[in-house]
């Protein structure tokens, strides 16, 4: 399997895992809750649902990073997401 194929499959797996995490924690909730005493509206998600979804996404993201990733490599990866990229040497100074 080539590096490009592995990268593509890894990206598709990451996307599928992200959608699965959303569906598992947040996708089934559809309504708002109204407190009968105060009339305050909350929702559609409870705090525990959002916290669980965030924790799941952190675990998914961490599992996709290569072992022994160096700081310079991580910065290079994250700066590639932006049009106006920061200078790594300036960030590390």
Q: What would your notes on this structure say?
A:
The protein has 93 residues and is mostly helical. 61% of the residues lie in helices and 4% in strands. It contains four helices and two strands, in the order αββααα. A two-stranded antiparallel sheet has the order 1-2. Strand 1 and strand 2 form a beta hairpin. The chain is elongated and about 55 Å long. The termini are far apart. 1% of the residues are buried. The model has no long low-confidence stretch (mean pLDDT 82).
SSE order and pairing:
Elements: H1 3-27, E1 33-34, E2 41-42, H2 47-64, H3 71-79, H4 88-92
Antiparallel strand pairs: 1-2
Summarize the structure.
The protein is mainly alpha-helical.
**Share of residues in helices:** 55-70%
In angstroms, what separates the terminal alpha carbons?
A: 39 Å
Radius of gyration: 19 Å
Low-confidence runs of at least 5 consecutive residues: none
Strands, total number:
2
Order of helices and strands: HEEHHH
Chain-averaged pLDDT = 82
Shape by Cα distribution? elongated
Instruction: Please indicate the percent range of residues in DSSP E strands (runs of 2 or more).
Output: under 5%
How many strands, which pairing sense, and closed or not: the largest β-sheet?
2 strands, antiparallel
DSSP helix count?
A: 4
Structural class: mainly alpha
Query: How is the largest sheet built, in terms of strand order?
Result: 1-2
């Amino acid at each position: 399997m080539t590096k490009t194929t592995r990268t593509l499959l890894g990206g598709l797996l990451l996307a599928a895992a992200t959608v699965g995490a959303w569906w598992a924690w947040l996708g089934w909730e559809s309504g708002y809750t109204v407190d009968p005493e105060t009339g305050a509206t909350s929702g559609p998600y409870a705090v525990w649902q959002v916290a669980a979804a965030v924790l799941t996404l952190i675990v998914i993201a961490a599992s996709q990073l290569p072992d022994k990733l160096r700081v310079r490599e991580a910065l290079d990866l994250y700066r590639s997401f932006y049009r106006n990229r920061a200078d790594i040497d300036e960030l590390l100074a």
